[in-house]
Specification:
It is a single chain. This protein is an alpha+beta fold. The protein has a domain of 110 residues: 2-Layer Sandwich (60s Ribosomal Protein L30, Chain: A), CATH 3.30.1330. The protein contains five helices and four strands, in the order H-H-E-H-E-H-E-H-E. The chain has a four-stranded mixed β-sheet. Strand 2, helix 4 and strand 3 form a beta-alpha-beta unit.
Length: 196
C-alpha cells in the first residue's frame, strides 16, 4: 500500500506540476512578406528641365504683359492730356487738333470710369473778363467735340483760366501762340487706363 500511496502522490505531483505550468504559446502563423510599393518615380532630368523652362516662360510672359499694360496706360494718359491750340481770338477747333480730340474720345469710350477737366486759356491780349469768357468758350468747344463722339457730357468738366496761367511768359507771337490752348486733366480713373 505504501507503494500505491507513493505512486498516487507521484501521480498527483505530476498532475499538479502539469496544471501549474503555462502552456507554451503557439508560434504566430508566418505572414506573407509585404509587397513593396513602388516609390513614385523621381522626375527625370528632362521632365524637371521642361518644368523649369515652362515656369520661366510663364514668368516672362507675365512680365511682358505687365510691361505692355504699363506702356499702354502711359500712352493713353499722354494722349488724354495732350493740349490743343487755338487761333487768335477764336474758339473753333483747328483741323490739326481734330485727330487729337478723336483719340481722346476713343480712350474715354474704352475707359468709362475716366473723367476729364478741360481748362481753357487765352493769351494776355484783351481784358481779364474777355479772356475768361474766351477760355470758357475754348474749353466748351473741346467738350462738345468729345460729346459729339459719344462721350457722356457728365464725365467732362470745363473751367477757364483766361490769361492767368500762361505757359510762356513772353510778350510776343510765339508766346501768345503757346498760351492760346485747352489743357486736359484726368480727374478720375487714370490708374486703370487701357488703350482702345
Amino acid at each position: 500500500m505504501y507503494s500505491q500511496l507513493r505512486f498516487l502522490t507521484l501521480l498527483a505531483a505530476v498532475a499538479l506540476t502539469a496544471c501549474g505550468s503555462k502552456p507554451e504559446p503557439e508560434a504566430p502563423a508566418p505572414q506573407p512578406a509585404p509587397t513593396a510599393q513602388p516609390a513614385p518615380a523621381a522626375p527625370t532630368d528632362d521632365a524637371a528641365a521642361r518644368a523649369a523652362r515652362e515656369a520661366a516662360e510663364r514668368d516672362r510672359l507675365a512680365r511682358e504683359a505687365a510691361a505692355k499694360a504699363a506702356a499702354d496706360r502711359a500712352t493713353a494718359l499722354e494722349q488724354l492730356v495732350a493740349m490743343i491750340h487755338f487761333d487768335f481770338d477764336q474758339a473753333d477747333i483747328r483741323a490739326d487738333d481734330q485727330a487729337n480730340l478723336d483719340r481722346k474720345a476713343a480712350i474715354l469710350q474704352a475707359n468709362p470710369g475716366v473723367r476729364l477737366r478741360v481748362s481753357g486759356h487765352a493769351d494776355e491780349r484783351g481784358s481779364d473778363e474777355y479772356n475768361l469768357a474766351l477760355g470758357n468758350r475754348r474749353a466748351g468747344a473741346a467738350k462738345r467735340q468729345l460729346v459729339n463722339k459719344g462721350v457722356d457730357a457728365g464725365r467732362i468738366e470745363v473751367i477757364s483760366f483766361g490769361e492767368e496761367r500762361p505757359l510762356d511768359p513772353g510778350h510776343d507771337e510765339d508766346a501768345w501762340t503757346k498760351n492760346r490752348r485747352d489743357e486736359f486733366e484726368v480727374t478720375a480713373g487714370g490708374e486703370t487706363l487701357v488703350l482702345p
